[in-house]
Write a structure and sequence with these properties.
- By secondary structure, the chain is mainly alpha-helical.
- It has one domain.
- Helix content is about 70%, strand content about 0%.
- The chain is built from eleven helices and two strands.
- The protein has helices spanning about 10-25, 30-45, 65-80, 80-90, 95-100, 110-135, 155-180, 185-200, 205-225, 230-250, 255-260, and strands at about 55, 140-145.
- The chain has a two-stranded parallel ribbon with strand order 1-2.
- Helix 1 packs antiparallel against helix 7, helix 3 runs parallel beside helix 7 and helix 6 packs across helix 10.
- The termini are far apart.
- The relative contact order is 0.16.
- The model has no long low-confidence stretch (mean pLDDT about 90).
Length: about 260
């Protein structure tokens, strides 16, 4: 005797997808956005001007080098779990999530060229916004790396850059935009939601990075809406972070001080 199984209706499917989106975001960039909001509130009420405060992006986890390396690699690995979850959920029904959001290697040359171009388009104005924010006193001093001078520091910073790009571009762009489209949000609302989410989890750095990342979010989300490929965005984000992280780590401290970077 066969069981009577009734397929869920459209309303039930929408409710389930909405809950799914909140869970995925709550495990990843959405959680970071909430912490960033609390962090900026704490900074603004601390009695110290934002311009005199510091945010360190890649701090050391231990004074013992190999224990620090272990912590760094564990942090990078576990931060990628929400990426795997998002891809797994998008693959429901047997469709390849990697191909669905364009995270594959189908167009390596074009993706690399577009990624580098996007990095240049975003990176230079981003530096200008950071400088303006610092001059106006509404942006904290961002230290891109505080790792000790060890042989593994640069490889770990490169891995960290790749991890950041995969997490943000897969979850905040590919996954989120696919799900919001399924929920029948308008294209404008989808782009705005993705861009504001990106800005939210950078808010702890101050107003300049918030504005810069919202603009970056609009550009990246609109590109994805038109092309349905997230790989160029991963390339661009990785290039931006590698230049920031590794460049900061390699520039002598006296040079950073002279440039106002430390």
């Amino acid at each position: 005797m066969s069981a009577d199984v009734t397929a869920p209706g459209p309303a039930a499917v929408r409710r389930r997808l909405t809950v799914e989106v909140w869970i995925v975001l709550g495990l990843s960039v959405g959680q970071s956005g909430v912490y960033a909001l609390v962090n900026i509130a704490a900074r603004l009420t601390s009695g110290t001007p934002l311009a005199e405060q510091t945010a360190t992006l890649n701090p050391s986890r231990s004074p013992r080098p190999y224990l620090d390396l272990t912590y760094q690699l564990l942090g990078i690995g576990f931060a990628l779990v929400p990426v795997l979850l998002a891809l797994y959920l998008l693959s429901a029904g047997g469709r390849s999530a990697v191909r669905r959001i364009g995270l594959d290697g189908a167009h390596p040359g074009r993706d690399l060229a577009l990624g580098v171009g996007l990095a240049g388009l975003i990176g230079i104005p981003g530096l200008a916004l950071y400088a303006v924010g610092r001059a106006l006193g509404v942006t904290v001093e961002v230290q891109a790396s505080a790792l000790n001078a060890t042989w593994w520091a640069v490889p770990v910073l490169i891995l960290s850059a790749l991890q950041n790009s995969l997490l943000e571009e897969v979850v905040a762009v590919g996954y989120l935009m696919e799900r919001l489209a399924t929920l029948r949000w308008s294209p404008v609302a989808i782009v705005v939601a993705s861009a504001l989410l990106r800005g939210s989890y950078h808010l702890y750095q101050g107003i300049g990075p918030l504005v810069g990342n919202v603009v970056m979010g609009v550009v990246f989300a609109e590109y994805y809406r038109r092309r349905r490929r997230v790989m160029p965005l991963v390339v661009a984000h990785t290039v931006l972070d590698v230049v920031a992280f590794v460049g900061y780590a390699l520039v002598p401290e006296e040079w950073r001080t002279a440039l106002g970077l430390s």
